[in-house]
Amino acid sequence: QGFFRRTIQKNLHPTYSCKYDGCCVIDKITRNQCQLCRFKKCISVGMAMDLVLDDSKRVAKRKLIEENRERRRKEEMIKSLQHRPEPSAEEWELIHVVTEAHRSTNAQGSHWKQKRKFLPEDIGQSPMASMPDGDKVDLEAFSEFTKIITPAITRVVDFAKKLPMFSELPCEDQIILLKGCCMEIMSLRAAVRYDPESETLTLSGEMAVKREQLKNGGLGVVSDAIFDLGKSLSAFNLDDTEVALLQAVLLMSSGAGG
PANTHER family in the record, alphabetically (predicted)? Predict the structure, then answer.
């Protein structure tokens, strides 16, 4: 089959010839001795020239196969989500507890857009001071961020303590989990407050900053990751429950590697 396919794709059969008037006996041993008779035998056993795809058709077929495979994968995923079991009464209660824990520790709640204040554009635009690690930061932006970082950390700790699955853990384990997830939860809380119109994130529910301001204020390349996450999440329009559950997952899985 490989010989026949290559012959058709490269249009080689017109160049084949036979020294014995096309009367060669073709088997596994002699098949390499006469290309013409080998090709004629392929035809005689039913191989069809019009079924062999050229390069462009072969690429198109492979692409179609991949697209169909991806479509089936998505359909199976959607089907599995549609048939997921309904949460039990206990699970609904836990979801409610997690949601309320988030709402009570999330600064400004759903009114963050009305209450936010934009960091002046001249702050955080020109990094000046050198840090011990060699990075340069804008001292004004750095100073503004340090004012809100401690309250933001406190709110994450308060959120965690309101979750029964966390508060029941030994104190040492609680500290390990918080150390592993505090930055991630604060980043998530900022990311879900990304505003596409102003291209800003609102930190701690009060300070709206642009990408370069956050980067030059001390977060460096991490700011790109948070802004990119914000852009992605903005398409989903997550509600409080979804954000709360994401935070709970980050919290309880942060010590998995230890």
Answer: NUCLEAR HORMONE RECEPTOR, THYROID HORMONE RECEPTOR ALPHA
